[in-house]
Each structure stands twice: as structure tokens, then as C-alpha cells.
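Late entry, evening session. Most of the bench is empty. Finally got around to the prediction I had been postponing all week. Sequence below, unchanged from the version circulated by S.P.
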Amino acid sequence: MYLPAISELEPIARAAGEAIMSIYRQPFAVEYKQDESPLTAADKGAHEVIVQALARLTPDIPVLSEESSLEVMAARLGWSRYWLVDPLDGTKEFVSRNGEFTVNIALIEQGTPRWGLVYAPVLDKLWYGGKGIGAWCVADGRHEAIQTRPHDAGQVWRVVGSRNHLSQETLEYLARFGELERGEIELVSMGSSLKFCIIAEGEAELYPRLAPTCEWDTGAAQAVLEGAGGSVTQLDGSPLCYNKPDTLNPWFVARA
């Protein structure tokens, strides 16, 4: 089984980050897709950087990006192994300029994330890893192993949630763990796949997502979290699978 070296993928993620930041630092236009999600030149630029670099690195492994053509989207159903990319996860965060956006690159095999990388250009932090491999954070030039920290009975639940998608269903789900009003749950709002990385670093225990996401939003960060000892499952406990006919994810819960 092929597993990428971080020395191969880190330069690709950082180059995509540079393409994003070159747009972020200046005024930019915002388009809207059919689903009303935003699209900018940064999304397109990072897409080109990553797709071209991966094609050179592993010409035998196809690439599916959020910004891929309809032809690629159709062809993917025949793939057993491929790169899954979100060149700019958190475009709404990018547009609002809060810095909470990431570059996501995952290697999917047989519908499962085997390896993933998440890079936050504004924070200049990078996370990578995979289940059975381990997980690491790269910051200030140092690679440090990271590990989840499961919830301790009697302690406040540390929960991360979406800044833009904290649904009523999510609040009802959280009620089984405690009450926000009583301080039994500490809720931290965060954009993009950074939510998974916070859990992977041991800074939170739970991320319930009872609102829409797509496969490219979660693949890389799921690999990182599982490498750090956590889990990502559907609400019934079954695995969160990839390369389905519909790229929309079911509701899921990420745990330490």
C-alpha cells in the first residue's frame, strides 16, 4: 500500500497556501455556485496548484477535487484509490477574512481515508497522519506527535461546532451530554476542518455534524483524527465512507 511521505506533500500544501494567501491579501471577487456556496480565485488557484503537483508526483493515482470538472466527477466512481482534495475548505471563512480555512489533501483507498494532510495558511500550521500510522502537527518548523484526549467523567464536555452551521438538530444532539446553560458543555465555534484538528490535538472531545458536508470537507481531517486515536462515524456508529454515488456526507460524529 502506497503511503505518501510528508516531505512530498508538505511543499504541495504550502504552495497551495501561498496561492490562496496571494488572493487573501487583496480585494477579490466572489462568485456563487448552483448550491449558493461561494467560489473565489483562491479556490481555483489552489486547485490548479494541487492537481498539477499530484499528477507529477503520482501520475497513476487520479485526483478528485471540489473544483474538478463534471467529467472527473463521473469517472471517480470507477476508482479504488485516488487523491481527495478540498483546495480551500472554509471559503465562507476566507470571504469573511477570519483565517479559519484550510487546504485538505487525502488519500482514499477502497472508500476509506488512509492518509490525510490539513494545512491552515493563516496559522501556518499543518497536521497529517492516518489510522494505524499516527498523527503529527507541524508548527514553527517542528514536527510533534499529537494524540486525542478522551472525555473524563465528571468534566465539562469540550465540543467544537461550525461557525456557520450550528443547527437545531446539533443542539438537540448535544443535550444528551449536558446543558450549555449549566456550563456542562463548553462550545467552541470554528470553521473548516480545523474542528477535527482541535480534537486530534487533545483540545476538545466531540464534534457532532448534523448539517451538510461533502466528502472533500472531511476526508483529510478524518485521517488525521483517526491517526491521533479518534474516530469519525455516522450517528448509528457505522463508518463514514467515501466515493459514494452522492458526495454528500451523512450526519456524523467525530470523537476523541
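Two things to note before I forget:
The longest strand covers residues 81-89.
The two ends are 27 Å apart (CA to CA).
Will write this up properly tomorrow.
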